[in-house]
From TrEMBL:
Similarity comment: Belongs to the phenylalanyl-tRNA synthetase beta subunit family. Type 2 subfamily.
GO molecular function: ATP binding; DNA binding; magnesium ion binding; phenylalanine-tRNA ligase activity; RNA binding
Keyword Mitochondrion: no
Gene Ontology terms: cellular component: phenylalanine-tRNA ligase complex
Originating species: Cinara cedri
The protein's name: Phenylalanine--tRNA ligase beta subunit
Endpoints of the signal sequence: none
Residue ranges of the TM segments: none
InterPro entries: aa-tRNA-synth_II/BPL/LPL, B3/B4_tRNA-bd, DNA-bd_dom_put_sf, Phe-tRNA-ligase_IIc_bsu, Phe-tRNA-synth_IIc_bsu_arc_euk, Phe-tRNA_synthase-like_B3/B4, PheRS_beta_core, PhetRS_B1
Reactions mediated catalytically: tRNA(Phe) + L-phenylalanine + ATP = L-phenylalanyl-tRNA(Phe) + AMP + diphosphate + H(+)
Coiled coil: none
Amino acid sequence: MPTVNIKKDLLFEALGTTYSDDEFGDLCLSYGLELDEVTSEKKMVIKEQCESKSEGVSDDIIYRIDIPANRYDLLCLEGLVDALLVFQKKLEVPRFKSLQAKKPIQLIVKPNTKQIRPYVVAAVLRDITFNPDRYASFIDLQDKLHQNICRKRSLVAIGTHDLDTIQGPFIYDALSPEDIKFKALNQTEVHNAAELMEIYSTHAQLKQYLSIIKESSVYPVITDNIGTVLSMPPIINGYHSRITLNTKNVFIECTATDLKKANVVLDTILCMFSKYCSNKYTAEKCQIVYPDGLVKHYPEFKYRKEIVNRKKVNHYLGISENLGNLSSALSSMCLKSSVIKESDAVAVEIPPTRHDVIHACDLYEDVAIAYGYNNIPKTLPTTATIGSQLPINSLTDKLRNEIAYCGFNEVLTFSLCSKDDVSTKLNKPFNSECTVRISNPKTLEFQVARTNLLSGLLKTTSANKKMPLPMKLFEVTDVVLKDSNSEVGARNERRVCALYYGKTPGFEIIHGLMDRLMQVLGIAYSAESDSTYQIKATNDETYFPGRCAQIIYRGKVIGLMGVLHPEVITAYELNMPCSAFEINIEPFL
């Protein structure tokens, strides 16, 4: 959940009312927000252990407000103020318009951009008036959007430029790093893109974005018609077209790998700051010309209508309100509404600031917020139900207790592991047919979903090998296996695994534990009957030759038991013999 920092004095000035901290906290809570902390810039700097840097920092009181992750319109002072004023019925819901110029500014997209960031949207804020606080808010909103919906610039990167310093039509291209030369923001010299990537490799903020394009043979770049570089997204803007307090016309471009999110970002910035334009709540369209001849105009500022049925709203929320009250509640959430009496419904207009409204249930939630959750009457459920434990969990708990009674310690291991843990370290080839792989693992330790519990117990033993011997560990939980017949392509399988690690293999202890579990389950041993369990000698790469057995129940193999192979023990950096068993317990249900 993102947090915005807003100066108390600026906030109250914009709201036209002064509140105590408690009163403002209550107002936030009634709108579905939370006043997380009341602090100051100096306290924030000191809290980050930078007391030496706190000199000269203002003591202005700061409100830190938690914002829902999908409410991008509340990530700045401007959006928050408008929302609260509309909520309090002190302001009409703004109506946003996109204006078409006689000769719209063009942004021409070149074919090479398909290799790296294929989409771009753009617009202009005309006759805008900045002051230091508005300027700071303008920059801060871009940072907040970059960290949230833009996914740290990987999906969308925002560039803002002083339109009066550059000349259209603009060109969006992708060139080799050596062919991109410009003076970047906060730089004193002209560098090519390769040199800038090296310079920013140690930059505190920018180094996290370099990997987005670093391995590409071409880098995206936006220039004007005389070759002046505006930006090299998603890394840095050019110094020449920088925004200042004196900027009157702002050219905004958003390059992206996701066109929908680029539209959301562009709409959000324009809607929040068009209030400072001489023609309030308006933005000028730009023309995007794609290589195939397709021409698009942005911003779209789409308004759409949804119909909300009164009976459904009342039923889902447990309230009883008439159409007029429901319409008023929705309008107070910046969703202009009108009553449709003949249909017993409310027509709701979704503005371009509310991209979070996707389904009717989102509107029901807004009605609940405006109505007040605390005002919804408490009622008993209309149906009586009796909760009970799932059979598999009931069996798991019983087995867990029995194994613990036998002197084994339970461990909880990660459900993700490395490919080596389920293959090489266990002397097995990697089985891609039954293993679920993670498409973008953040670390080599979490590449696949585990297909066994044994590797987790061995890693736990390795991490605790300095503990007194013998070590007796167990785990009862799920493994994940590929399954083409499953709706999601995979299924869980509940297993139990136990391990003995000491100066002797301890096979008799593991065997005894397995026999005890069968005794608790009421399953007798028989070498012939299919209704009982059996133990048959077998060979498996993970276990020592001649020291491994299959565990069979009702004619089906449910697991293995034996002394681990020395190579497996060595792979986990252990130096004592080890025995283990692992069985599937679902057949016992």
